[in-house]
Write the structure tokens for this entry.
Amino acid sequence: MEYDMPLFRPPSEARSLIFQVTLGCSWNRCVFCAMYKTKDYLVRPFEDIERDVMEMSRRYPDTRKIFLADGDPLAAPTDHLLRVLDLMNRSFPALERISTYAGPTNLRLKTLHELQEFRARKLDVLYLGIETGNDRLLKKIRKGATADGIVEVCRKAIDAGLRMSTFIILGLGGVEGSYDHIKDSAKVANAIDPHFLATLTLMLGPYEKLYEEEIMGGGFKLIDKRQSLQEVRWFVEDLTLTNCKFGSEHASNYLPISGTLPRDKGEILRLIDTALADMSSRLIRPEWARGL
Ligand code: SF4
């Protein structure tokens, strides 16, 4: 099987067998995301996917986990996806779960019943970037959804029995929009009540000037290390989740945290406060070790 590069997957899918059901991202307009800018969106023909699945089922017959790529396979027609999921279930007898990226623009096209049909075929975890719960920022970054819209599609998926793995991006609102970005993001996360929640930290590299001047407009200033830790603190202190694995271990973050909320909330807040009190602390990831 040959992959159409570039290929992305969440870190937690490192041990999953990846199949490209679609190529690229059907939305492909989020201003902070360059993942699929080099690809045109395409739903791969069933026969091509079938060839890959057949080959892999011979090589790895005991596969237990599958990840569907690229950016948003749920944008494919439902009957196509059902056929693909049935094929995978037939071909891998030990299969336990299938996961994929999802976005608000494709998830809103699927009904509760369709999502239940996917769930019945072992689709289990959806990875979805909330990015921010602030409507003004969602518009600026061209996410194609409002905060209420993101909550609605995520709740629909959860009601269908799927598990949501969601994340927000620290720093997206810059210095001036920092507080509103985080407080609104916590409201959205609470309303979704996902199974997994993570933070990433905005890293723009060579696009920093473009993001500051052309996209966010006058006076926008990126947050620094301390402000990033302050954002995590504001975020965690507002979370009222019922049972969620929380993490900021992604390499873009300055402070790696992991725990279960609400159980570990006090401990997580204490860890952030310790780091905030000593910005040279070994707890904090050095700039050179950060990456996307
Ligand atoms: S929906 Fe996801 S993959 Fe597509 S452009 Fe936005 S962030 Fe990137």
